[in-house]
Amino acid sequence: MSAKTELCIPVSEDRTQYENNQMSANKDYDNDIDYSQRGQWLRAAVLGATDGLVSVASLMMGVGAVKHDVRAMILTGFAGLVAGACSMAIGEFVSVYSQRDVEVAQMKRDRKNEGNSDAESEKEALPNPIQAAAASAFAFMLGAIMPLLAASFIVDHKVRLGAVVATVSLALVVFGWIGAFLGRTPVMKSCLRVLVGGWMAMAITFALTKWIGSTGL
């Protein structure tokens, strides 16, 4: 019995050491990830999708406040999708290109002051305006298509509005969770923030449009 116990001890110690090494490796991997760098593209993707979702849903809710016609609601949402995607793409392209120009100018000054430098690697590290514009437009369309699909196949007006709100709420929670998971931030706070913001945008648009429509303007 004593011999068996002595034989088991090294195995147990080896396993414990292995698990500790694995945990240490995972911690080192998390420490090696630069979440501030990840946050740059994450911000653009989540912002684009959330913007498309909330802005198009708010437009549709505003039209739905004064018109029961599903055709008007869908056409308004589609126009918002196209206009918003183009606006996001152009805005991101101009913004990233401006950032690129600033970084290029700084690299030239550093190269002049320090002498030789790895210009090729520096060039690869520069932000790409075309990729940023395409990503922003795609993210916007991905978010905007959700309320359009939710309203397209529902005839009853009140049910259609409820379906849009429910779809947008679920999508906002998902977007908030994705952003929190990838950025390693608190999930509940992230989900609640985007959800309340989306509800406010839709409610304000609906209420103001309803009020203006009732005044006969």
From TrEMBL:
> What biological processes does GO assign it?
intracellular manganese ion homeostasis
Any Gene Ontology CC annotation:
vacuolar membrane
- Coiled coil ranges (UniProt) are none
Is the keyword Membrane in the record?
yes
Pfam family of the protein (one): VIT1
- Please list which residues make up the signal peptide: none
The protein's predominant localisation is membrane
Q: Keyword Repeat, does the record have it?
A: no
Q: What residue intervals traverse the membrane?
A: 44-66, 72-97, 132-155, 161-182, 194-213
User: What UniProt keywords are attached to this protein's entry?
Assistant: Ion transport, Iron, Iron transport, Membrane, Transmembrane, Transmembrane helix, Transport, Vacuole
Recorded GO MF terms: iron ion sequestering activity; iron ion transmembrane transporter activity; manganese ion transmembrane transporter activity
The family classification in the record reads: Belongs to the CCC1 family.
Under what name is this protein listed? Vacuolar iron transporter
Specify the species. Tagetes erecta (African marigold)
